[in-house]
Amino acid sequence: MSDHTKSNFTKMDLLLDFAVGLELSRDRNGQEGYIMYHGTTLQNALNILHYGFKPSTDGMLGPGVYVTRSFQKAAAYPKSLRLGEEQAILRLRVRVGKVKRIDYQYHPQQKTWYQEGYDTAWVPPNCGMVPSGLEENCVRDPRRIEVLDVLNSDGSIKNLSTFGFMPGPIGYLCPPSVPSMLGYSRPPSVPSMLGYSCPPFVPPMLGYPYPPPGFPSYPYPYPTPNPFWAP
């Protein structure tokens, strides 16, 4: 089969082929997404929970957030852990939008698919692009991705309560607030990609510019502004 022929799929063919084996999930607004995974370090997972995903600037499919429907593939990342680091696997709900199939190396749109109006690039399994033969996806806009759980390599849910994060029916909630006179205000109930937006800083009062000693650090001692945090 030629490269041209194997990429000559109709939209219906692509939809049916892409959706095989995928688990559908709905958010509280009824929007559908697919269950996928992302392997990383626990430190990075805490970053993602607090600020949202930061897209890669490059990769096999160009810039974006790389996710997979394969728990096995996600569990192989990161490739190595430094001393003291811990692995975490994020279980996600992904609204893939318009999908571009990339099924051979040096595809003319391999790294430019998003410029053609696509939201996600998909490498199907066993097409020769990934050594493991497992599929891969690149999502251009991180706002299409919602974290549902943080898992251990055996699939069990990590206990993140020591970091101030508690799982809920709509994803992870922000760290619990401390009284506003210590520099935090309570979280507003504004929906975000993480369930609720995190509490904003208010002007420091009573000499406490940051939370007092003993308050969980998640993932930094003091949160810093980040353009990928979902307000």
UniProtKB/TrEMBL annotation:
Highest taxon above the source species: Eukaryota
GO molecular function, one term: NAD+ poly-ADP-ribosyltransferase activity
Pfam families: PARP
Stated family: Belongs to the ARTD/PARP family.
PANTHER family xrefs: GIG2-LIKE PROTEIN DRED-RELATED
A Gene Ontology term for the protein's cellular component: cytoplasm
Domain PARP catalytic span(s) in chain numbering: 29-104
Protein name: PARP catalytic domain-containing protein
Annotated Gene3D superfamilies: Diphtheria Toxin, domain 1
